[in-house]
Design brief:
Length: about 475
RNA sequence: GGCGGUGUAGCCAAGUGGUAAGGCACAGGUCUGCAAAACCUCGAUCAUCGGUUCAAAUCCGAUUACCGCCUCCA
């Protein structure tokens, strides 16, 4: 039985979806004014892994993740480059798609964009105004935070302290427009030379939080199962989403709030963030590091835990991933020399490992314990494939399970290509040389292939090969 | 200051009452023509102090260090 840590209650709760067989989830996506960094990617990967596990459990998952494609930073960056905002955002949306595909993130069911939902946003705001939950002030629209009785509930914030804090940060202009310092903007009045949309309350553009309320409601309904995002979004972004949506819909917004932990860098384990400037973009990183390794590193850490990013972690992930891949290759190679049939005892062990895996992942997607079971399975496979006699059905059972469980972490094992004729012929030549004890020649062939990234390994069941990248 | 989260072997990390999973690295061994891969062996009393208990890493209290949120941020 799946349990998830709900940030709203700060408790582990049994996961009960609204509909028995399906899960609706919304994950806050990036503001697209730059390449995503590995902290952003971590969030994407974390929820992709969660999604994959839900699908493994048999749920049909509707996965919606937005692009924030209009905001101050986008406008600033576009102005700096002297291009229109949408040229900029399209560039980085394309880059997002490429980068996340490289990390083997499954495409979302839908990636709605704020600017494509302006009409819906305006309607939503109008309803809030009509209801007295929002007010127009000098061409902008603000939400009366205090009027929403549960404001601060998600992030455990005290209203008085929030007001105190907020009052120190807002500009004089904002102070004049807001009834209360904690009120947040739904519609920003246009400034000179800015892109704007027409609305009944004036020319302007949507505030940040409103788009997620509008688009999640539109694509998933007023009440849906999971709302996810980085822990830094808990306040104010998610708090505001709840206030907006529940004020308008008069019903519960998301049932479970899941927040992922940060990627940190440096000796101080400092949060990686665009504003701190201490980030590594995925775009750059995957030129240096195999994206599979990056994916593995990120998805085998439980989503709420921080990841202290450094070279050691990368190396460790490389080694561990290689171990799983080797086990898979070793079994695949052994398949050709297997007898027909199965080994019930091993089959039972495989089933036990899978059950253990599920127990681990059912505990709030505990990936560390989950991947430990994958290592168990890999080890079992290695031990089995070195037996004198093996059965094909058991080998394929291990292969299938290994592939299935690894795929939850975004690792595809079943894509290794086969030896081409040239390689096959060289292997044959080398084995002839070995028979004739011409080890100089056999080693030469092996070294030459190694140069090309092809590793030969001699086993009792013949010579096997694998590619190393 | 408020709220949330961390502190377990060289490193990563599991474990929420019954004498510390797993991985990486290191070392030794088996196998091999040599190698590779694989397998086997090898390490910690759990930030500190105090308390509860027959029994605590695990509960309670205090202390301490670090991170995050409280303003844009995945």
């Amino acid at each position: 039985m799946l349990k998830v840590y709900n940030s709203f209650t700060n408790q582990l709760e049994t996961f009960k979806p609204i509909n028995k067989r399906s899960v609706k989830m919304y994950v806050c996506g990036p503001t697209v004014y730059n390449y995503i960094h590995i902290g952003n990617a971590r969030s994407v990967v974390a929820f992709d892994t969660i999604r994959r596990y839900l699908e493994y459990l048999g749920y049909y998952v509707t996965y919606v993740s937005n692009f924030t494609d209009i905001d101050d930073k986008i406008i600033n960056e576009a102005n700096k480059e002297g291009i229109s905002y949408d040229v900029l955002t399209n560039r980085y949306i394309d880059a997002f798609m490429e980068d996340t595909a490289a990390l083997n993130v499954k495409p979302a069911t839908n990636n709605p964009r704020a600017t494509e939902h302006i009409d819906d946003i305006i309607k939503f705001i109008e309803e809030l105004i009509d209801d007295g939950m929002a007010y127009v002030s000098n061409g902008s629209v603000y939400f009366r935070a205090k009027k929403f009785k549960n404001y601060g509930k998600l992030s455990n914030k005290n209203i008085d302290e929030l007001e105190n804090g907020a009052s120190q940060h807002i500009t004089e202009a904002e102070a004049n427009e807001k009834e209360d310092p904690i009120d947040f903007v739904l519609w920003k009045k246009v400034k000179l030379n800015e892109v704007y949309w027409d609305a009944p309350f004036g020319k302007g553009r949507p505030g940040w939080h409103i788009e997620c309320s509008v688009m999640s409601n539109k694509y998933l309904g007023n009440n849906f199962d999971i709302h996810g995002g980085g822990i830094d979004l808990e306040f104010p972004h998610h708090e505001n989403e709840i206030a907006q949506s529940e004020s308008k819909n008069k019903e519960k917004f998301a049932n479970y709030w899941l927040h992922n932990g940060f990627v940190t860098v440096g000796d101080q384990n400092e949060k990686m963030s665009k504003s701190l400037g201490n980030f590594i973009t995925v775009h750059d990183l995957i030129k240096e590091v195999n994206p599979e390794v990056v994916r593995f590193l990120m998805s085998t850490t439980q989503y709420r835990r921080p990841i202290a990013y450094n070279q050691e972690k990368v190396t460790e992930a490389e080694n561990n991933l290689k171990k799983i891949k080797n086990a898979y290759n070793n079994l695949e190679h052994r398949m050709s020399s297997a007898d027909e049939g199965n080994d019930p005892k091993i089959d039972q062990e495989v089933r036990q490992i899978q059950a253990n895996f599920q127990d681990a992942m059912d505990d709030d997607f505990n990936a560390q314990n989950g991947i430990a079971e994958v290592y168990e399975l890999a080890k079992l496979g290695n031990i089995y494939s070195e037996r004198d006699f093996v059965f094909d059905k058991t080998i394929s059972l291990i292969l299938n399970r290994l592939n299935e469980l690894s795929s939850i972490f975004g690792i595809d094992l079943a894509t290794e290509d086969l030896a081409d004729d040239e390689v096959k012929s060289l292997i044959e030549q080398r084995n002839n040389a070995r028979k004739n004890k011409d080890f100089a020649l056999s080693d030469k062939i092996r070294d030459e292939l190694k140069e090309k990234g092809i590793i030969l390994e001699d086993t009792n069941a013949g010579t096997r090969f694998r590619r190393e990248n």
